[in-house]
Amino acid sequence: MAISARNGLKGKIEDVKLGEVMASIKIAVDEPAVITAVITRESAEELSLAEGDEVSAVIKSTEIMVEK
């Protein structure tokens, strides 16, 4: 997948919380730090995001997207 964003951080999902519409995904990155991405529940389910998955946090402007 090609993407224009260049601020990607590789990490591992620490926690997935699914709400009615949105999902909160906590990603541990190398520093050691944790990034929380708030994405739609539909996106979290389509990516089958689960604790322990290796993912990238792609940061663009004021948003954080999750790539798996």
Automatic annotation (TrEMBL):
<dbReference type="InterPro" id="IPR005116">
    <property type="entry name" value="Transp-assoc_OB_typ1"/>
</dbReference>
<dbReference type="InterPro" id="IPR008995">
    <property type="entry name" value="Mo/tungstate-bd_C_term_dom"/>
</dbReference>
<dbReference type="Pfam" id="PF03459">
    <property type="entry name" value="TOBE"/>
</dbReference>
<dbReference type="GO" id="GO:0015689">
    <property type="term" value="P:molybdate ion transport"/>
</dbReference>
<keyword id="KW-0500">Molybdenum</keyword>
<feature type="domain" description="Mop">
    <location>
        <begin position="2"/>
        <end position="68"/>
    </location>
</feature>
<protein>
    <submittedName>
        <fullName>Molybdenum-pterin binding protein Mop2</fullName>
    </submittedName>
</protein>
<dbReference type="GO" id="GO:0005886">
    <property type="term" value="C:plasma membrane"/>
</dbReference>
<dbReference type="InterPro" id="IPR004606">
    <property type="entry name" value="Mop_domain"/>
</dbReference>
